[in-house]
């Protein structure tokens, strides 16, 4: 088989969270460009993503969900809806995440719970629901989580974000240990500093922005499209022997 064919996703169905913008939008587009149909979980918008995926000739199914308040049953319902409307589920990308910046001494319980709910709890319960379906289908599947540089470091003013992303790294390995022998690959992408709405304030900081940029060996922040290649790799047959990996896409930050 030509090696490029290993990266094709024709006939696959992918569920991507946080699909309306930024990294999630780029990941969804990458999967669609490789041949997959997309179900996209969004909170406030999805139309731009839908238009771009539809232009590729792929199906797009929007699913509205407030992940701050979502329950395990709702995640299970989302997966069931995908299977009911698109026929099956082959790929899950747990991309949705939020960050709220406050010094630890002042951090509120409300903000702490919201960040952990979206960044950690959703990853487990959506992965659990997807794995149940993948096992029932009998064809295996691919689960991709989105970790972070703060899966390895502590950050500043983001204690629950760092805690949740450390948890995502550990959960990725734990699920891979249980599900790899069942034909389900669980791996993580750890983006570095990427230009998204989540860090608009940080990029506007006249002190921290240039300090961060200077520390990146590549000399620039990432953009969402920098995540497209690794997403297709982990979603495709090209990564069939990759389990429990956390792949940094960070311009060399962790190697500095």
Q: Which terms would index this structure?
A:
single chain; alpha/beta; 41% helix; 256 residues; Rossmann fold; globular; seven-stranded parallel sheet
The overall average pLDDT, rounded, is 96
Number of helices: 8
For this structure, the CATH topology is: Rossmann fold
Number of strands: 7
Describe this structure in words.
The structure is a single chain. The chain is of the alpha/beta class. The protein has one domain: 3-Layer(aba) Sandwich (Rossmann fold), CATH 3.40.50.720. The chain has a 7-stranded parallel β-sheet with strand order 3-2-1-4-5-6-7, sandwiched between helices. Helix 2 links the parallel strand 2 and strand 3. It is globular. The model has no long low-confidence stretch (mean pLDDT 96).
Please render the helix and strand layout as text.
Elements (H helix, E strand, L loop, with lengths): L12 E5 L4 H12 L3 E6 L4 H9 L4 E5 L7 H15 L4 E4 L14 H29 L3 E6 L12 H21 L4 E8 L8 H4 L4 H8 L12 H8 L10 E4 L7
Parallel strand pairs: 1-2, 1-4, 2-3, 4-5, 5-6, 6-7
Helix pairs in contact: 1-8, 3-4, 4-5
Give the gist of this structure.
This protein is α/β, with parallel strands linked by helices and 256 residues long. It is built from eight helices and seven strands, in the order βαβαβαβαβαβαααβ.
